[in-house]
Amino acid sequence: MAAKTIISRPIYGTLSPQPGKHHLFIADAEGALAIIDMAGKAPSGFFDGAEIVFIPGAEGKHIAGLEALKPMQLHVAPSFASLLPRLKQTLANAHMGLRVYLAGTEGLIGQAMQAALEAGIDHTSMQTEHRGSLARRMQCVHCKGITENVTTQPATCSHCGLLLLVRDHYSRRLAAFQGVCINAEDRSEIPPMEEAFP
């Protein structure tokens, strides 16, 4: 309930096929299932002009399901950082009318949307669907470092080591939630860590 009152929180929908000749799908892990589910509603030949960029994660699941869609291109990458140069090139060479579909974790959706907006893709040409882990991408407001896949509350900054309260405030510019020192007054006060974002 509290998350609905935070106006900075992104609101995700469900992927649906849009008219157009060029379609770019960016997904990680369970985000592949959003693409596969959408394929059941897509007209024949929809994926003929589609490129899918997929980060399968450690388990490497869903690659065969995406291959079965017979996209024009399927690129599998180990991480978002490794696919970013390719994504920037794809977006820079994009034709008018490109449709962008983002599916998976909030970290992936936020970073991919950031890259698309920087390339001049209009936000109305993008669709998002959250699937899978609720783990957060967090920025420490003190050292400005980014910690990926945060699942606990509080969380430790992977850069400066501070114990941070992971706020519900989401920065679209940084594609990250904000983390602020939880024990700034007395560092000896260490509240227990709990799994908050599984």
Structural features, described:
This protein has helices at residues 2-5, 31-39, 63-67, 80-92, 106-118, and strands at 23-28, 50-55, 73-76, 99-104, 126-130, 136-140, 146-150, 152-153, 155-156, 163-171, 176-181, 194-195. α2 links the parallel β1 (23-28) and β2 (50-55). The chain is an alpha/beta fold and 198 residues long. α4 (80-92) runs parallel beside α5.
Low-confidence stretches: none
Task: Please state the structural category.
Answer: alpha/beta
Mean pLDDT: 92
Cross-sheet strand order for the largest sheet: 3-2-1-4-5
- Tell me, briefly, the overall form: elongated
State the order of secondary-structure elements, H for helix, E for strand: HEHEHEHEHEEEEEEEE
Counted beta strands = 12
Taken as a percent bin, the fraction of beta residues is 25-35%
Radius of gyration, whole Å: 18 Å
- Please give the largest β-sheet: 5 strands, parallel
What's the tally of helices? 5
Helix content: 10-25%
Distance between the termini: 17 Å
